[in-house]
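Before relying on records like the one below, remember that each one covers exactly one chain. Contacts with other chains, cofactors or solvent are not represented anywhere in the record.
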Amino acid sequence: MASATAADGGGFVRNPDPNAAPSSRPAAGPALKATAAAASRPVSGKNPSAGPGKKDASGVWQVSTPKVKLSNTVTNADGGTANLTFEVWTADSAGNAKTQVKISDNQYGVLVSDFVKSGATASVSVGAGRLKPNTDYVFHTSAYAKESGLYETSWSPWARFRVRMPVDLALPAPNASAANPDQTAQPYTDTLAPASPWQTAAGASRTPAAVLGTSGTHCTTSSDGVKVCGSAEPYDGRNFTLHRAAGARQRAAAQASLVSDCDPAAPRKGLWTTRFEECSSFTMAWEATLNDAPVGTVKALVVNERKLDPKSGNITERINVTDVDVPATIPAFTLDAPKIDCEPSGNCGVQNVSGWTGAAAWVPGDHHSVFADASYLWAPDLSGPNTSKPQVMKLGVAVALQGNPKIPGQTVQTTPAVFMDVAGGDLENGGAPDQIRCDNTKIVSKVPTTGCVFHNYVPTYTFNAAKYPQASSHAWLIQHKLSNHPGSKADSKPLYFLPDGDISGNRTVICPTGWAAANGDTSALNGATDKELNCDEFAFNATYNSGGMPSLAGGLNPVGSGDACVQTLASKQGGTVHLFNIDGHTPTWKEVCGRSAISGNDNSGSMAAFGSFNANQRLLDRDPYWLDTNVRAACSEDSATAVRCTMTANNQ
């Protein structure tokens, strides 16, 4: 045998020669110097196996745990009992043995099975921490007979195996200089906030008219039988024919935009909002009849813009009449200045309504645009923000456009077409998506402020996945694989903000003290400033989605312990950090929460911007928000039993 390598703890001396005779590693028992001539040597089986798992097409055992069970049969022709010595080596790409692996603390670093009858299978289990995921290994066995004291003179054939965890996400290297996402850059959307998970009564009608809060048809009849009916409905791209005006009039309309990303000359269909801006489009109609005989209908396309102030109760509005179509049967049509009503009247007051910019009169074939501005103010009952009696109030705003068609020789009374942000007049329960909510509460640790939001808009918190890939990938895993998809916009499953519930109690349920240190791998720490592993809970403990939030307090996914969650850890293998399931905890994907032992810097850094996001978006109790994990996955397997993917940060 070649000379031994240096000791590696516990008296272990690594074997430098994978082909050294079994007699050079006599761990199974004492060899007898004198043997009977008739005695036979025991023999290892020809098909050693590793498990739990299956052999793939190339003959490699795919094992789903680092606590590998190694097995082989053993035969003793003398009929006595025998055991097997198991020796494990790392393997090169061709499956050849490279370096012996210490799988026990004896001087040979091998494991020895119990004695079994001839022809039976002998097995050993490799302890935790001895073998690494995603590493190729080979092992072989040699037999020892108890009664004769004889060793097998050669080893069994090599068997190749690889530990493949059910959860294996290969993470990108962290980019410490990656810029934090702009949490204020919230996109326009026409997606409604989903129905409240605590809603017990039937929700408001979701017909287009109710959604946008149009208030039905209003009719007036003159003394000489002229009836004019005004109505409004959401613009859907089909219920109005745009007359593409050329030249200065169309350009003037385009320049009159009050809010960003809203072009009255090229209107959006229906309702679009951010947390503080709205762009909505309505088709308005004024139908005239004389003694019940049709005279004609004037139609107009109205683009309404609203802008809220997150730091005051000031609200501004611009009403754009971007296109008017007057039939030949009506010689002229005019609009009065808009009439605006804001409720509740004691707290919301209209400050100013301007006249139309541009001539608010049209004749057949004239489709020019005009606009008018308005402003109003919400003020709480109290004089200014107050920490002891904060106030939260939903507002209702109605805009009425009085239409005046001219009918020769007849009297015409003005008739309003009305759109509003409350359907059915119920401020609390009848709010359309663009309904405004104002408050003067204390947001996070900041002093109380007054501000307004479109509360049915769901903002998005975005992770800096390039800088904090461990936290981002853990959230991706839970969001992607669990049926409750916490925070997923694609699945319409928002997180619900918990500002001052028993947040520490939630965390104690899921992440008891010391859990990360006991279950994690310090190889996941990133640099000298990364001092300790953290337990990363998802959904976050400051949400009603947290597994630690009890149902009696409104919790949506209560569990008795973090043991009921998907349990993972970050671990560096070679130069790459992976997210693995914790050995012995194979997910069923029926769980409702996740916890992971990850880098402390990743855990805290990923949420560092949340306070300012919360303050900027004015999140209040039970407000929904989305989580964008900001990572994408290329998966070699994504099944009901396993998920193995390479992760990439979108902001890398």
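The helical segments are 208-212, 248-255, 469-481, 503-510, 515-519, 600-606, 610-617.
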